[in-house]
Design goal:
Number of helices: 9
Largest sheet: 4 strands, mixed
Strand order of the largest sheet: 4-3-5-6
Oligomer: single chain
Number of strands: 6
Order of helices and strands: HHHHHEEHHEEEHHE
Shape: globular
Length: about 260
């Protein structure tokens, strides 16, 4: 008999809403503390400066508020776990839309507007609201899980590029880590390799002999922030191994061909 299909991971919608709001607040406060020299630094993401990256992060919340103001879609087409694989084809379109929306506005104004719109939109809508999105229609509950990924990743980007110390909300980090770990298991189903990202996630992936008891023969272990950087292309597998940020044991414990999951 084939193994039972694993149920998708469930997320507490109240905790996710709180995490998204809190993380956006951390970024908003952190960006206001950056000086002109920090804002002018390269972000490490193409031609963007730190100021451009900060404005894009404001747009993440602003665009959600705009999406909630549009008429709802009928049925969801995309789940949270499928979202990482749908992002690449729309990166250019999203970047252009963000530039058009944000052009010329001071950063504090952008963050204030986005925060107000986000709060009002979340107050007025339940998680089963289906958003009409370019990437594919999604429930608000699922889409909010993906916002933890965007916010955590760009908080880390801002911290590294600007030398800032913007905190990352624990629940946002947990959801981001788990979603990207589950996406790996979806991309490479199987039970030959166990990927451990303590304290938030353990998944099995890659076809091959399935481990049933004792210590698995193929194990990858890393910390949440390193995992997020690997999954989003901020660092690569070889560099993380060389820096001892990843521990990999077993002949199948090589994820280099599967990463990044999204760029």
């Amino acid at each position: 008999m084939p193994p039972a299909k694993k149920k998708p991971r469930a997320y507490d919608p109240v905790k996710i809403r709180t995490a998204v709001t809190a993380q956006f607040g951390h970024v908003s406060r952190g960006v206001r503390e950056l000086g002109d020299e920090q804002l002018a630094r390269p972000s490490g993401l193409g031609a963007w400066t730190v100021a451009d990256l900060a404005a894009h992060t404001a747009w993440i919340a602003d665009s959600l508020a705009v999406g909630l103001a549009r008429p709802p879609a009928a049925v969801p087409e995309l789940t949270a776990i499928e979202w990482p694989f749908a992002t690449a084809s729309l990166a250019g379109k999203i970047s252009e839309a963000a530039r058009e929306t944000l052009a010329g506005a001071p950063l504090p104004e952008l963050f204030d507007r986005a925060a107000a719109g986000l709060a009002a939109g979340l107050e007025a809508n339940t998680g089963d609201r289906v958003l009409n999105l370019w990437i594919g229609d999604m429930t608000l509950a699922d889409f909010l899980v993906t916002r933890t990924v965007e916010l955590v990743v760009h908080t880390d980007d801002l911290n590294r590029a600007a030398g800032a110390d913007i905190p990352i909300e624990r629940q946002a980090m947990a959801a981001c880590t788990r979603l990207l770990a589950d996406a790996l298991a979806l991309k490479a189903p199987g039970g030959a390799v166990e990927v451990r990202i303590p304290p938030f996630a353990v998944v099995q992936c890659i076809e091959g002999p399935r481990h049933t008891r004792g210590t698995p023969p193929n194990v990858v272990e890393t910390d949440p922030l390193t995992w997020i950087r690997l999954a989003t292309g901020r660092t690569d597998w070889a560099a993380a191994l060389d820096a001892a940020q990843v521990r990999a044991s077993g002949e199948r414990a090589d994820l280099s061909a599967l990463l990044p999951l999204m760029g």
